Amino acid sequence: MALISANFLVFFLTISLSIPPILTASVVEDLDNLKPPPDFNLTITNNCLRNPNLRYCKASPFDLHEIFKSTIVASHLCNISNNPNCVESFPKIDLHSQPKIAPLYLSFTFFWKYCPLTILSIDLSNSSLKGNFPFEVFNCSQIQQLDLSHNELSGDVPVQNFDHLPNLTFLSLSYNHFSECKISDKNFFKRFNTTSFIHSGLLPNQKKFRVKAVLLLVGFPISVVVTIVWFGWLCFWRPDFLPKFLQRKYKFTPSTLKAATNGLSKRNLVAKSSTSGIYRGILRDGNEVKIEIYWEIISTESRRRFVEQCKILVQLHHKNIVPVLGWCDNRRFRAIVTKWIDGGNLETWLSRSAPPWKQRVKAFIGIASGTCYLHEEWPEVGYDLKTRNIRLSSGEPLISRLKFDHHNSSTKKIYKFGVFILEMVSNRRPLEDFERGETGFVEWVKINYPDNLENVIDKRMKRTGHIVREATDAIEMGLMCTDLSSGNQPSWDHLSNMVSNM
Ligand SMILES: *[C@@H]1O[C@H](CO)[C@@H](O)[C@H](O)[C@H]1NC(C)=O
Ligand SMILES: *[C@@H]1O[C@H](CO)[C@@H](O)[C@H](O)[C@H]1NC(C)=O
Ligand SMILES: *[C@@H]1O[C@H](CO)[C@@H](O)[C@H](O)[C@H]1NC(C)=O
Ligand SMILES: *[C@@H]1O[C@H](CO)[C@@H](O)[C@H](O)[C@H]1NC(C)=O
Ligand SMILES: *[C@@H]1O[C@H](CO)[C@@H](O)[C@H](O)[C@H]1NC(C)=O
User: Fold this and answer.
1) Closest residue by Cα to residue 64 from 21, 5, 105
2) Cis omega (within 30 of 0) on the bond before 91?
């Protein structure tokens, strides 16, 4: 036996291994039984002379027994690993899926200490290895492949030690239980890509991962909350920042209106009373608007009615009615938003520029058209035909004071239209100029018509025969409209015809 051992050892120590055919017993038995041959000292000395790189050559003095044991383990390993020719080469240690013997071989530290230089690949995968990373493999610094996957290894991976395996190109630590933390060596993860660490417990590019995890775990919920809060804020406070299709048509929020008026600034204030104010503002879409704000706190029922009325107002579409753009309904803040009309009102126009007859007729026709539209389509909507309340926009009169008034009978509306015509012809203010207001005004016209016609027709106007004739017609129409004795008032159709024939 000793002879045979000596024989194979010669091969092992010179180049690689030679497994004698009798070496059939288990490696443990062999380790117990075999003793180094007498000339073993000489053999390895010679080997070292020939190849000083052999690992045991660096040991001095030689531990002959240990070196001999390692040759036995080597011979077994080479054979088990299915190397094609254990006499001449020992390129791989293949203990993959060998849970019974892999841990045993791993425990022979004397073997790993003298790891044969020919080994280029170590495969210990799927072999039920437990405990810490097997440091033994680092002795085989020449290896190119190391597979420790599918084991139960735990603890830290000695990342730094991989610097001692410069030729390692394949590494697999996948499917183990290594501890996650303390891996900060970037080069390590650069050298081996993520396929080396699948389910290993290691977190390659851990910082990145941590950033991602933080983003996901913390950032995501925060961003969701922020988005919801922001969206909620927009919906409830500034819907004008939302895309058009998400905005509630016609509904304005107090914040939107405040933003449109520089925070209800004095500069934007046009008129004010104790409970209301009229502001001029610019919406985010660039539209200039008039905002009538009411501060008085009213009952829920009144607010409901207010909203209902606003819903009607926004539906009015006529060239002689100021467009209502929407409303704001808030407990302590209600508002109606209408288009801002740049021109002045009829009263100022009438008294300052003494418009020629033709332009006055245009105003009659416009107002008649507007009132007829309201009468036909929206009889519940009332208005105030005082010349002060009629705006002028590019020569077109616009009814601006719309209101819901149950006392708005048709008769009264026609009466008011009559007063309006007489006012336009005469340029007299019924309420200011006459003691009994409109009634006094109408009586004054009746007194002067037809005998003192020149008193009634605005004196500043150029008065040709034609104009006087038409003005006379207008006065007659005005008187008809204001004649409340039964049956004398013209009907709406009649009125509309008369006006369009002017
Ligand atoms: C070497 O391997 C062969 C089969 O590959 C086997 O028959 C033989 O018993 C093994 N020798 C040792 C010493 O294990
Ligand atoms: C081995 O041989 C060398 C000389 O070649 C000697 O110095 C050494 O003591 C020997 N070692 C043993 C353990 O016999
Ligand atoms: C792992 O080893 C077991 C036997 O121990 C075997 O059944 C299984 O197929 C092996 N798995 C892999 C992935 O090699
Ligand atoms: C790595 O490979 C090169 C070339 O094959 C070789 O010269 C070198 O000794 C090897 N390094 C180690 C530590 O074995
Ligand atoms: C990882 O590296 C191996 C070789 O080491 C290569 O085959 C594989 O494609 C690489 N995978 C990625 C995702 O880069």
Assistant:
1) 5
2) no
**Amino acid at position 21, single letter:** P
From the CA of 64, give the closest atom in ligand 2. 13
Whether residue 61 has a cis bond before it, omega within 30° of 0 = yes
**Residues 369-400: tens digit of each pLDDT:** 999 999 889 888 888 888 888 999 888 999 98
pLDDT tens-digit profile of 207-226?
666 677 777 888 788 888 99
| Closest ligand by atom to 144 CA | 4
Q: Tokens standing for 291? A: 């905002």
Instruction: For residue 69, report the distance from its CA to the centre of ligand 1, in Å.
Output: 18
- Decide whether any atom of ligand 2 lies within 6 Å of the 64 Cβ: yes
The span from the CA of 359 to the CA of 337, in Å, is 29
Ligand lying closest to the C-alpha of residue 49: 2
Q: For residue 72, give Cα distances in angstroms to 9, 12, 110, 416, 492.
A: 8, 10, 11, 125, 124
Out of 1.10.1240.10, 3.20.20.70, 3.40.50.920, 3.30.200.20, the CATH code matching 247-339 is 3.30.200.20
Of all protein residues, the one whose alpha carbon is nearest to atom 4 of ligand 5 is 170
Q: Can you give the pTM of this predicted structure?
A: 0.51
Ligand 1: residue whose CA is nearest its atom 1:
79
Single-letter code of the amino acid located at 476: E
Q: How many whole angstroms separate alpha carbon 238 and alpha carbon 380?
A: 32
